[in-house]
Structure formats: C-alpha cells, structure tokens
Design brief:
Number of domains: 3
Low-confidence stretches: 27-39, 58-68, 205-217, 452-460
Strand order of the largest sheet: 4-5-1-6-7-8
Largest sheet: 6 strands, mixed
Radius of gyration: 25 Å
Helix content: 25-40%
CATH class of the largest domain: Alpha Beta
CATH superfamily of the largest domain: P-loop containing nucleotide triphosphate hydrolases
Strand content: 15-25%
Mean pLDDT: 79
Distance between the termini: 26 Å
Order of helices and strands: EHEEEEHEHEHEHEHEEHEHEHEHHEEHEE
Number of helices: 12
Shape: globular
Structural class: alpha/beta
C-alpha cells in the first residue's frame, strides 16, 4: 500500500491534519517536548485510493538536539519511507528558517512533495500564502485542518500520485508471490532473530550482538531450501512504545509491522529463558490481526532449566507460551538454540507441514457436513426474546490464491448474523480445529445474514 508522510516543523498542525485525513482522532501523549503518538500511522480515510498515512510529528522530532538535527531527522524519515510527502507549513507564521531548511532537504527526495499551507482559517490568511511559492514547491494547497477546509482538493492531489502506485504495487506483489515463501522473522529485541537467520544460513549475514535491537531495519535475505527459493525477512525487534525514544526506533517497529503484512508466514521468536513479555503479546496480536500463518520458535531452549529432562522442559515451555498467547492457538512450536545451532532443521520441517495443511482446505461439502453435525451436537442457545440461530449453508473461499500459503475463509450464511454469539463461534472454531487440524493456519469465519451479501463479520482464532 502506498505511503504518505506528513512532514513539517513542530506546531504547524501535522497532528490535526493527520486526524482529518485518517477520519478519526488518534490518541496523543504529551510526554516530552514535541508530540509522541501511541500510533503514528493509519489508513487514509478521505482518498479514493487506499494508502497509509505517517505522521512524522509523532516520532519525537524536536529541536532539543539542535536545529540541523531536527531538520535532518524529519526529512530523512520521510524520504526513506514515503511514496508522497506532504510538506506542511503554517499560514499564520509565514516562512521560517526551519521551513526553508526542510524545503532544501526535501529536494533530494525521490518521492514527490506536495506543499500544504495549513491554518488558512480565513480569507486574510489565504491571501497571504503567496510567499510560500518561494520554497520551490509551487503555490501549494491552502487548507485548515482545524476547520476541515479544502480537504477534497488535498485528497485529489494525493490520489493523483498514489493511484498508479497502488496498481503497480498490486502487480508487483502478484509477481513476487511466485518466488517461494516470504518468511518474516519477528520478535522483541534480543530474542535471537538474527542468530536464527545466521544458523539457517550458516554464516554471519546479519550483525549479531548481545545489545538489544542490533538490527535496525527489515532485511530481505534470499535462501534456497531443497531446491526452492525463499525469502527470509529479518526485522528489527518491536519494542514497547514508551521506549521508542528515537525516530529510528519507531520506524524500525513500523517496518517490522509491514514485514508481517507482506509475509506468507511469520516465525515468532520467543526467548523462552525469559518467558513471554507484554511486547511478545503485542507482536502476536499483530500476527493474529493480519490473519497470518505462524510458527512459534522457542529460542534459547538450552538455557531453559537445562538440568531437567528435555521432554518435560518442552512441555512446560509450550504450556507457558500457549497460556500467554492463547489467541495464537493455531500456531505450532519448535524449540531451538539458534546460537548453538541446535534443532534448526525442525524449523523447515514444521514449515513444510504448515504449507501442506494450507494446500488442503476443507471443501464446501465437508464444511457443511461438519457444521451440520456441530449444530446438532450442541444447538445454539437462544437469548430471551430472540430467535434461535439457524445455519442455512456454508462455503469455503480462498481470498488470495497468489500467496504461497493461502488462508481460507469459511463463510457461514445464517438466518440473522446478530444471533451468532462469541462463545458459540469459539465452540465451532475449537471443533473445526479438532476434526480438521490446520497446523499453523488461522481459522477465519465470516458470518453473513441470509439477505445481506456484503454485511460480514470476520474473526481470527
């Protein structure tokens, strides 16, 4: 999906414009000079073409480290990540030295730059915007994020750039999907992601140290296994937001999240010597939300109660992780020591099993027979004053046949989807997983009412 970065000095209204374009207010935390967001990206709400907004004002860009440092950080982040840059200035303040420095820096960008003159709240301020053309980006688009003025013109300008990019990206993704598995190696800092890749490759392709967060970016590493090409995506660890005190940290986390989205399968690396942390749960939630196949790698297993019997240790470790990450119940486990290169072969054995299961989705006929039996064995309970949920029929759909590991959606047509209770859907999920094991593949139900083709509800289990 194309990316649009919002760039500008502090207090020009980047956050307000971000919220307008995103179509909702996103939480802001004022814990230091400048504004830091708990989320710094969101889908653009007002454009016709899907794209992702990035507010560089939400990454702690301040003037505390000096004038040149602030300018460099702000501009470099946009140039590294964006397909389009919205350069925001303040109509009330006029051109400042920082505006001029940013304008100069952004000229090196390969991405197009759209000048946006914000805070043009009235006619007087709109008439005073002509001087901004001296920044070298044309007359710009005047707007008022606070009042919601002229947003349609801005949306059209964004669409003009990102629409062809979106088509190109879709075509490129279909081509890339022909080239074997894209495997994202994800986990919190120092869980052993780079060590795992080095063990797989049997060389030191990536830098490994005992300092948390050595890998700053997502790195694609080609790999061939049994004659088939794959891509290992080595990502920076996703840290707690409160510890993301630099722009590099925040964008490393964003790249890790993007890597999850574009991967065919995720290897979630857990440091089993330390156990599951809140950050591990956050990463696991991203995998669940993106409906990604997953394999959990229990790394540093050699350090987990080393004096105990291996099978006992493995049972204890998996029980702990499965309790903490219960929502990833579909993900199997392998226990390894990446640093000592122990049991690394199990990773690709398990990946092969997952891929085999993915190639064998439940047929529509089997799905209907299974659901009929499940409904008969445990009929749904009717709430007081309501009808009982009735299953009419079901079908299996593969939304993306281009991916190396297709994830099916099981569509249930019922008399009224509002009658489907969460605990009953969980019952169906558990029964389906028992009767038709789909190792590493999430079960996705889409529940639809009889007379509503477009109204659906999807959940990952």
């Amino acid at each position: 999906m194309p990316t649009v970065a919002i760039v500008g000095r502090p207090n020009v209204g980047k956050s307000a414009l971000f919220n307008r374009l995103a179509g909702r207010r996103i939480a802001i935390v004022h814990d230091q000079p400048g504004v830091t967001r708990d989320r710094i990206s969101a889908p653009c709400h007002i454009t016709k073409t899907p794209c992702t907004l990035i507010d560089t004002g939400g990454i702690g860009a301040t003037l505390n480290d000096g004038f040149s440092s602030a300018v460099t950080t702000e501009a470099d982040i946009a140039m590294q990540t964006a397909d389009l840059i919205l350069f925001i200035v303040d109509a009330k303040d006029g051109i400042t030295a920082i505006d001029e420095a940013l304008a100069q820096k952004l000229r090196k960008s390969k991405a197009p730059v759209q000048l946006v003159i914000n805070k043009a709240d009235n006619e007087k301020q709109t008439h005073l915007t002509g001087d901004f053309a001296t920044l070298g980006y044309g007359a710009g688009i005047t707007t008022s994020a606070e009042l919601g003025k002229n947003l349609e013109q801005l949306a059209d300008a964004i669409d003009e750039v990102v629409s062809p990019l979106h088509r190109d990206i879709e075509l490129a993704e279909k081509e890339v999907k022909k080239d074997g598995l894209k495997i994202a190696i994800v986990g919190r800092p120092n869980a052993g992601k780079s060590s795992l890749i080095n063990a797989i490759l049997k060389d030191d392709r990536t830098i490994v140290s005992d300092v948390a967060g050595t890998t700053r970016d997502a790195v694609d590493v080609p790999y061939e296994f049994l004659g088939e090409r794959h891509t290992l995506i080595d990502t920076a660890g996703i840290r707690r937001r409160t510890k993301m005190d630099s722009s590099v940290e925040v964008f490393s986390a964003m790249r890790a999240e993007r890597s999850i989205r574009r991967a065919d399968i995720c290897l979630l690396v857990i440091d089993c010597a330390e156990g599951v942390s809140a950050q591990d749960r956050k990463i696991a939630r991203i995998i669940q939300d993106e409906k990604k196949p997953c394999l959990i790698v229990l790394n540093k297993f050699d350090l987990y109660h080393p004096s105990a019997n291996r099978s006992v240790r493995l049972e204890e470790a998996t029980e702990h992780v499965s309790t903490e990450l219960f929502f990833l119940a579909y993900a199997p486990y392998v226990a390894v020591s990446a640093l000592k290169q122990q049991s690394i072969g199990l990773v690709f054995q398990k990946l092969a099993e997952i891929r085999k299961h993915a190639q064998e989705p439940i047929t529509t006929g089997k799905l209907n027979r299974f659901l009929g039996a499940a409904f008969d064995k445990k009929p749904p309970q009717a709430r007081k004053g309501t009808k009982r949920l009735k299953l009419l029929y079901a079908t299996t759909a593969i939304n993306d046949r281009y991916t190396a590991i297709p994830v099916p959606t099981y569509i249930l047509f019922v008399n009224d989807k509002r009658l489907m209770q969460e605990n009953y859907e969980q019952y169906l999920t558990n029964r389906l997983r028992e009767d038709h094991p789909s190792l590493g593949i999430p079960i996705i139900f889409s529940v639809r009412s009889r007379n509503s083709k477009d109204d659906n509800k999807s959940k990952r289990k």
